[in-house]
Design a protein that fits this description.
heterotrimer, A alpha/beta, B mainly alpha, C mainly alpha, A: alpha/beta, D-Maltodextrin-Binding Protein, domain 2, 9-stranded mixed sheet, 15 helices, 13 strands, C: mainly alpha, MetI-like fold, 2 domains, 3-stranded antiparallel sheet
Chain lengths: 336, 460, 438
């Protein structure tokens, strides 16, 4: 018992002392969507330079922003990843703590609607997608609770299958982007929507009668659930479709199949931008931040032939990429 | 020299104190243990405690207070222009100074004032540390001599040492209270902010849970509904299913292991069953989502039942499997501890083994069994990863185990690690859920305690 | 005549009683056997579930313990590696090994001159080959200018192909490996330049984004460091608290409060302990993020109730006669507890501790809040280095898009289970040594 108490005291004091040690590796927090790309760059960066490999945490965009904007100093992260743009309120909380930020847009992530290889092929317009998943749809000039249970009820050309879609929960950036691009896109152009002044709220509400199954953020799990249930569809990131092309296939949206070239060219309608944000005050203090940003924004990483493409990133168009690289490497300040 | 070395030196000093105390006590009676009031080790421990405890206590207090004192000294030493700054600006300035002092990170190019302050800050810190070392060592030495001098053969060392140990035991049990206070504190503030946005009445009695508020301010979101009843109902549904699996299997396993099985069989089977508790919950999650859930779904379809692919049944059954060892191992220990005389008495009356178990052993072991079941229930309520993967996320107020439900822990996890901004109602709702769950389980435990009290018997 | 029937009746009644008794006894024995069967069935059911789980894990995880290698003729081209011929280590360290590798690949794989072909060729092998070349050159600069046949790691996709996880008969668009790569692979196979070896990388490195380079050493060390802290904190504190509550505490409102409190803590969702750790250890005490010391403290708070409850049950089970005897011999209450009660209760206490530790070993959720769900390439060297733990590694790999991580996830689970079984074995030995029945 005595020895244990002694060890205990020693351990606790090690902890106290350790906290005061200087940090020599970059710390990155933020979105789980950008995590696979950020970690790939971090690993290459650690291998090919003399800097230590950055530590990348997956905290979710919101959690990452909170940590990032909490202050300046070794206890706070240097970079945060985001699957959406920084919000004004977040920017203000950063500014309040004296933080200057550089914003870097990394590329795109396609959001796909996919089902098992053995299931039916699907080619949906945005309107059909909206009608299938919205909480309320216009019918005979009125807004009614979504009555559709089969795809073929929406349009006879669609397969006679129960509508069952596994998708991310309301806290997810993927869901947010899906709603904004796919649902709102379909809602705006839907016949009869104008007369009902259907916009905003009604466009964003997803049905809650069990047809849309909130299946969590683990996209691998969704892929495997789809494989087990050929009638179900799932909503997830393009990289999971790419890796599992022998198990699942993507449904075409508005006539475009979710393929690399189509998303990169902006033809596939449902894609969103990915970002990371750099704390300028830490540049030159925590070693390697500038070099890390340079490594991330080099063509061998995020270019069309770069290794991030193999990880599922859809690169920015050439001109945007060059401009963004210049802006990032020059550490231009973000203003809102 | 850092605080670690200081602590090590003090511990060394107290080890030396132990030897000295022992020797002095024995020397007082010429090496005769019989002449001492207490065993020699108690005299050693007395000196060691005097040597280490006061000094370590002072060092701990010093370390926790030093930051605040240094800060106020630093602010007092700043020029008048800086003193009139607002709290926020002042704290920014302070963090600048501190960062500059420790590692050259600043939010802007440092002004001469900041540079001077940083230097002063380092000065203050090193002076403070030196003072702490001196005080700590002096106290250690003083304690050493005080304890050492007090020792003579008649000195009542044991009661004194035991009193200190007694207090140490009390402190150890108070840690549980401190943890509770810590949890309530870390949940309370965020919960209050949440309840200022959503009325507690709606939260506690609302039947509709749908946190579909917008992620971005510029986006018009659908209104979120924060009625927590369906998720608590879901939690209890899944917990009940889990207990329906775990209690019979666990209890019968325990009875068989303790009463029928050969010691060899028991020695092998018990640890094997305990593996079930140690398999990471992530694995159970996968198992539930990919093996059990499709199985139930397919089985349900074949007999004409509509089973959801994320049914409460699948998550509950798998969770039940996980907590079997909590029931089986702990109950087995308790049953095993029932005195053999009770069994012998029952056998002598002509009872069969199973009658003995049912009518004598189980009642005798009941408090312990109830305790193990309570522990298992607690694990089931607090379990996170299985339900995150296998139970749905959409709320559903139902008692039908074939439908998908969601649980409190699932909601807490998804709300906390989501992409929404951190002070949105959604994230704050996670804290409120945690708090309410805490209160509910507290009530359940109070009830359970009084029930156990009532039926508790002591045998020998 | 008259007493015979009476006699008969008595005999009859006796016989009836006897048959009734016999039937009753038979019934009781049947009940006895049934009861016994229930117990055995329960154990078999639990074992069956365990077997199903283990078989599914092992069958998925076994392939991860082997890895595929390709024999490549690597051309250490002097023009790329050391154009000046200076043999300066600093320059050699940062030379253009990728260029030299591409030249070698062009010679190895016909058709890799085009842009797509080059990508295909590069995707045959692991992307750490340039670093392997660098290390070879730094170890022996004289190989510059020569061509060496080296066994290099294949890429994860080729590894999957070699293990048969990729179906070669599928149409090209559905395969992770295209026709050109398949043709190259089959040619290499014919030349016996493909081999399957034990995957030592898996045990000697930390996490990586490339499945073929990913290992669990970092997570194992992280788990060990975290559990050491957890055990050091929760075992003494838990046992001390249990001893106080069971042996010393007066039965009053205050101890009732503590008791309810402890039971309640066991039901607090583990992620809430993460929130507590975030608020207290990180924000208040300013301890570093992602550090095993913080993880250990959080897990210690989490396992404390389990240990206290189990220890109290074990202490409760020690018969009062033991205490009375010791007290009667003049021992103090503390001596009674430390010398007699505690040793007798130790098996139960250890059971509780092992269950608590196992739970801590497999816990993910609370670590989410204190930054241990992170990608960390360096193996942690101390209690304050950033680290991750085994279940978190499993959680991260389970979420990774690359297919080859699926088998690594299962393999990591197998490693975790091995540790768990070792812990249990240890507990069994301890229990055997101490257990007694009265």
């Amino acid at each position: 018992m005595k020895i244990k108490t002694l060890t205990l005291a020693a351990v606790v004091s090690v902890a106290m002392v350790g906290a005061a040690e200087a940090r020599d590796q970059i710390r990155i927090v933020g979105s789980s969507t950008v995590f696979p790309f950020s970690t790939a760059v971090a690993e290459q960066f650690g291998k090919s330079t003399n800097f230590s490999t950055p530590v990348v945490e997956s905290t979710g965009t919101g959690g990452g922003m909170k940590l990032f904007c909490a202050g300046i100093g070794e206890d706070h992260p240097d970079v945060t990843n985001a699957s959406r743009r920084m919000k004004k309120s977040e920017f203000e909380s950063c500014t309040k703590n004296g933080i200057d930020i550089t914003e870097v847009k990394v590329g795109f992530d396609g959001i796909v609607l996919a089902n098992s290889k053995s299931g039916a092929d699907l080619d949906l317009s945005l309107e059909q997608l909206f009608v299938a998943l919205a909480k309320e749809v216009p019918q005979d000039g009125k807004l009614v609770a979504n009555p559709y249970t089969n795809w073929s009820q929406i349009d006879p050309s669609l397969p006679n299958l129960k509508i069952e879609v596994l998708g991310p929960p309301p806290t997810s950036g993927t869901r947010d982007a899906f709603i904004e691009i796919a649902m709102e896109g379909g809602c705006k152009t839907l016949a009869g929507a104008k007369d009902l002044e259907l916009s905003g709220k009604a466009c964003h509400a997803i049905r809650e009668d069990g047809v849309f199954v909130e299946a969590g953020e683990n996209d691998n799990l969704i892929v495997q659930k789809l494989e087990a249930n050929p009638d179900a569809f799932g909503i997830f990131g393009f990289s999971f479709l790419d890796q599992n092309s022998d198990k699942v296939k993507g449904a075409s949206i508005a006539g475009t199949a979710p393929e690399f070239e189509a998303i990169a060219a902006g033809e596939y309608p449902v894609s969103r931008s990915l970002f990371f944000y750099v704390k300028q005050q830490h540049v030159g203090v925590i070693p390697g931040i500038k070099e890390f940003v340079t490594a991330f924004t080099s063509d061998s990483a995020w270019g069309p032939d770069g290794y991030l493409v193999d990880k599922g990133l859809i690169p920015l168009p050439d001109a945007d990429r060059a401009a963004m690289a210049k802006q990032a490497q020059g550490l231009q300040s973000l203003s809102m | 020299m850092n605080s670690l070395i200081l602590v090590a030196v003090l511990l060394l000093l107290s080890a030396i104190g132990y030897q000295f105390g022992r020797k002095r006590a024995l020397a007082g009676t010429g090496g005769e243990i019989r002449g001492l009031h207490s065993l020699p080790g108690y005299y050693g421990a007395y000196v060691a405690l005097w040597c280490a405890l006061p000094a370590l206590l002072v060092i701990a207090i010093w370390l926790s207070a030093q930051g605040g004192i240094v800060d106020s000294l630093l602010i007092a030493g700043l020029p008048a222009s800086a003193q009139t700054l607002s709290t926020g600006e002042l704290s920014l300035l302070l963090s600048d100074i501190r960062n500059l002092a420790s590692g050259d990170i600043t939010s802007r190019t440092p002004s001469p004032m900041v540079l001077a302050a940083a230097e002063r800050y380092n000065d203050l810190r090193s002076t403070g540390f030196a003072a702490m070392v001196v005080v700590g060592l002096a106290l250690g030495m003083a304690g050493f001599f005080f304890g050492w001098r007090a020792i003579n053969p008649e000195f009542r060392a044991r009661p004194r040492v035991e009193r200190i140990v007694h207090w140490a035991l009390i402190v150890a049990s108070a840690i549980a209270i401190l943890t509770t206070i810590g949890i309530v504190m870390s949940l309370l503030f965020e919960s209050i902010r949440f309840f200022s946005r959503v009325s507690p009445v709606e939260f506690l009695f609302g039947l509709n849970w749908s946190p579909q508020t917008a992620l971005r301010a510029e986006q018009v979101g659908s209104t979120g509904a924060f009625g927590a009843v369906p998720i608590f109902a879901g939690t209890f549904l899944i917990t009940i299913i889990a207990m329906l699996v775990a209690v019979p299997v666990g209890l019968f396993s325990a009875i068989y292991m303790a009463e029928y099985a050969s010691p060899r069989f028991r020695a092998i089977i018990k640890p094997i069953l305990e593996i079930l508790a140690g398999i990471p919950t992530v694995v159970y999650g996968f198992f539930a989502a990919l093996t059990i859930a499709p199985f139930f779904r397919g089985f349900g379809e074949s007999i004409g039942l509509d089973v959801a692919s994320e049914s409460a049944l699948a998550a509950g059954v798998v969770m039940g499997i996980m907590i079997i060892p909590f029931v089986s191992s702990l109950s087995d220990d308790v049953i095993n501890a029932v005195p053999q005389s009770l069994r012998d008495g029952s056998f002598a009356m002509g009872a069969t083994h199973s009658e003995t178990i049912r009518q004598v052993i189980i009642p005798a072991a009941l408090p312990g069994i109830v305790g193990s079941v309570l522990l298992a229930t607690s694990r089931a309520i607090g379990e996170t990863m299985i339900v995150v993967m296998a139970a749905g996320l959409a709320s559903n107020l139902t008692a039908n185990p074939l439908e998908a439900v969601t649980t409190v822990t699932v909601q807490i996890v998804t709300l906390l690690v989501g992409d929404q901004e951190f002070d949105s109602s959604k994230t704050l709702a996670a804290f409120a859920l945690g708090l309410v769950l805490f209160v509910i389980t507290l009530c359940l435990n109070v009830i359970a305690l009084s029930v156990v009290r009532k039926y508790r018997e002591k045998y020998d | 005549m008259t007493d015979i029937p009476a006699n008969d009746a008595t005999n009859d009644a006796e016989a009836r009683t006897r048959t009734r008794e016999a039937a009753l006894i038979r019934k009781r024995y049947r009940a006895e056997r049934r009861f016994r069967m229930y117990g055995l069935a329960a154990i078999l059911a639990a074992l069956g579930m365990l077997t199903v789980l283990l078989v599914s894990i092992v069958s998925a995880g076994l392939p991860a313990f082997t890895t595929t290698q390709i024999a490549l003729d690597l051309n250490f081209d002097a023009g790329d590696i050391d154009p000046g011929g200076s043999r300066d280590p600093a320059k050699l360290a940062s030379a253009n090994y990728r260029g030299a590798l591409l030249k070698s690949l062009r010679a190895e794989f016909p058709g890799s001159e085009t842009r797509q072909g080059r990508r295909d060729a590069l995707n045959m092998i692991s992307n750490n080959v340039p670093f392997v070349m660098r290390d070879m050159v730094l170890a022996d600069p004289f190989i510059i200018g020569t061509t060496q046949r080296v066994w290099v790691k294949s890429s994860a996709d080729i590894d999957q192909l070699a293990k048969g996880s990729i179906d070669r008969t599928l149409p090209e668009s559905d395969r992770r490996v295209d026709n050109r790569q398949l043709a190259w692979f089959e040619k290499l196979e014919r030349e016996e330049r493909i081999r399957t070896v034990f995957n030592s990388t898996f045990f000697t490195t930390a996490d990586s984004r490339e499945p073929e380079q990913a290992g669990i050493l970092g997570a194992v060390i992280g788990s060990a460091l975290t559990l050491i802290i957890t055990l050091l904190l929760s075992f003494p504190v838990g046992v001390m608290a249990a001893v106080y509550l069971e042996e010393f505490a007066p039965k009053n409102r205050w101890t009732d409060l503590i008791e309810v409190n402890i039971n309640n803590l066991a039901a607090v969702p583990s992620i809430v302990f993460g929130l507590l750790g975030l608020a207290v250890f990180l924000n208040f005490f300013g301890l570093p993020r992602s550090a095993p010391v913080v993880g250990g403290m959080v897990l210690a708070l989490m396992t404390l109730p389990t240990i206290i409850i189990a220890s109290r049950a074990a202490l409760k089970a020690v018969p009062p006669s033991i205490r009375e005897a010791a007290l009667g011999m003049g021992a103090s209450r503390l001596q009674t507890v430390t010398h007699h009660v505690l040793p007798l209760a130790m098996p139960g206490i250890l059971t509780g501790t092992i269950i608590g530790m196992a739970q801590a070993l497999g816990e993910t959720a609370p670590l989410l809040m204190i930054g241990m769900v992170a990608f960390i390439v360096d193996v942690p060297g101390g209690f304050t280095d950033p680290a991750t733990v085994l279940p978190v590694q499993i959680f991260l790999w389970a979420d990774a898009p690359e297919r080859a991580f699926v088998e690594r996830t299962s393999a990591a689970i197998m490693v975790l289970l091995t540790f768990l079984i070792m812990m249990n074995l240890f507990a069994v030995l301890l229990r055997k040594k101490f257990e007694r029945r009265w």
